[in-house]
Amino acid sequence: MDRTDRDRLLDHEYDGIEEYDNPLPGWWVWLFWATIVFSGVYVAFYHIGPGPSVIGQYEEDVRLAAERAAKQTATAGAISEDVLAVLQRNPGAMTRAKQIFVARCAACHGDRGQGIIGPNLTDDYWLHGRTLTDIHRTIREGVPEKGMVPWKDQLQPAELSAVAAFVGTLRGTNPPNARPPQGVDGAGKPAPEAKAGS
Ligand code: HEC
After folding, report:
1. What's the Cα-to-Cα distance from 22 to each of 26, 43, 72, 107, 123, rounded to whole Å?
2. In terms of pTM, does the model score above 0.70?
3. Domain range spanning residue 15?
4. Which residues make Cβ contacts (< 8 Å) with residue 129, sequence separation at least 6?
5. Whose CA is nearest to atom 39 of ligand 1?
6. Nearest to 164 by CA among 102, 94, 78
7. Does 187 fall in a domain?
């Protein structure tokens, strides 16, 4: 390369310091023009043309999230006797459900479901239905006017199903100090008066 041409001295001088007028490297200049061209294309596409805006993308994400949530609720809503009965045979789910029961339900229903403020869950008599889906509904929606909390906002759908299935396993366990039965049995017969007096 021709040194005299490339390293041309500029005609100023500060405190004896002189400076060459070196051209910027080709790749740098190329990149510089590329960014300018890119910004033009960007503005044309996203601000003027058909490109999605940030708000549009956000709204799309929100829509997808809502769709996913709806789908999840739909699957969680697909509760049946079979689904809950299968859960009862799942040791992992039952262990987890028992922990939840002891932590959240035992204060009112006793650590073994024998009943304290809340009814005995181990006998054959039920106030709000005896099937697993009935139990699931009672736990989900609660009986607020009678002091039974609705759990749908405090437990995940899977936890709720597992706890309902677990409550079903308590029936007939006959724990000590059980609260007298309340409600009706499978044939619709009310709990015996003599034992129910409390
Ligand atoms: C603050 C006290 C309290 C807590 C905590 C509580 N319950 Fe209850 N529960 C009650 C009361 C009171 C009733 C009876 C409602 C009625 O008389 O209609 C009840 C009723 C029920 C029933 C219906 C029983 C029947 O005879 O039909 C089920 C099932 C049940 N609870 C499960 C649970 C589970 C599972 C939990 C924990 C996730 C829980 N409860 C936590 C107070 C409570």
Report:
1. 12, 33, 64, 82, 94
2. no
3. 3-48
4. 135, 137, 138
5. 105
6. 94
7. yes
Closest residue by Cα to atom 34, ligand 1, is 105
Residue 87, domain member (yes or no): yes
102 C-alpha to ligand 1 centroid (Å): 13
In a domain, 32, yes or no: yes
Say if CB 45 and CB 29 are below 8 A apart: no
Ligand 1 pocket, CB under 6 A: 104-105, 107-109, 117-119, 121, 126-128, 135, 138-139, 143, 146-149, 151, 163, 167, 183
Centre of ligand 1 from the C-alpha of residue 28, in Å = 73
- What is the count of structural domains for the chain? 2
Q: Answer whether residue 28 is part of any domain.
A: yes
> Is 21 found in the same domain as 114?
no
Ligand 1 centroid to residue 74 C-alpha, Å: 25
111 and 27 belong to one structural domain = no
Question: 109, 114, 161: which to mutate for ligand 1, most atoms within 8 A of CB?
Answer: 109
Each residue's pLDDT tens digit in the chain (198 positions)?
Answer: 455 555 678 888 889 898 888 888 999 999 999 999 999 999 999 989 888 888 989 999 999 988 887 776 666 557 889 889 999 999 999 999 999 999 999 999 999 999 999 999 999 999 999 999 999 999 999 999 999 999 999 998 889 999 999 999 999 999 999 999 999 999 999 998 644 444
